[in-house]
Design goal:
Elements (H helix, E strand, L loop, with lengths): L19 E6 L3 H17 L7 E6 L5 H14 L6 E9 L5 H20 L6 E5 L2 H6 L11 H16 L1
Parallel strand pairs: 1-2, 1-3, 3-4
Helix pairs in contact: 1-5, 2-3
Bound molecules: 5-nitroso-6-ribityl-amino-2,4(1H,3H)-pyrimidinedione.
Keywords: Riboflavin biosynthesis, Transferase
Subunit structure: Homopentamer.
EC number: 2.5.1.78
């Protein structure tokens, strides 16, 4: 029995009073769309209202940290503050070191935003060596129906309720 994975949720959190942002890259669209769908599916299952799920897209994963911070600020200014943001990106290894540099810098910046903004910023970036790895983590391959986007939706609700 594999031990890796999130396991059962501690409890079913009620997200009915939460406002959650999703910022997604557009690179590797097929996988991105499945991950975003999975995150929204779980947010809705946890009673986050459709009108309280704010979705914006950016060109690629490199833009996620800036857009995450900007979306928090934009919603604050509109007096509709976000409780958490889920940045979603899919980075696929190419033939150069471009992948490593983007993965490393985006990961560090997204982690820093949690501390800088004192708000949950969920890590929704797949850093994959092959297309098959990416598809498997979005529930798009025969080898896996698990969609990591659903875990990210659940994490956003749990972190918002526990620590906001
Ligand atoms: O190169 N590969 C990828 C990528 N490059 C674009 C980068 O994120 C950015 O949008 C541009 O450099 C412009 O700033 N962005 C991804 O999300 N996944 C990739 O696999």
């Amino acid at each position: 029995m594999a031990i890796k994975g999130l396991g059962k949720p501690e409890q079913k959190y009620d997200g009915s009073n939460l406002r959650i942002g999703i910022i997604h890259a557009r690179w590797n669209k097929e996988v991105i769309d499945a991950l975003v769908k999975g995150a929204i599916k779980r947010l809705r299952e946890l009673n986050v209202q459709e009108e309280n799920i704010i979705v914006e897209s950016v060109p690629g994963s490199f833009e996620l940290p800036f857009a995450t911070k900007a979306l928090f600020a934009k919603q604050e200014k509109a007096n509709q503050p976000l409780d958490a943001v889920i940045p979603i990106g899919v980075l696929l290894k190419g033939s150069t070191m471009h992948f490593e540099y983007i993965c490393d810098s985006v990961t560090h910046q997204l982690m820093k935003l949690n501390i800088e903004l004192n708000k949950p910023v969920i890590f929704g970036v797949l850093t994959c060596l092959t297309e098959e790895q990416a598809k498997a983590r979005a529930g798009l391959s025969s080898s896996s129906v698990h969609n990591h986007g659903e875990d990210w939706g659940a994490a956003a609700v749990e972190m918002s309720i526990k620590f906001n």
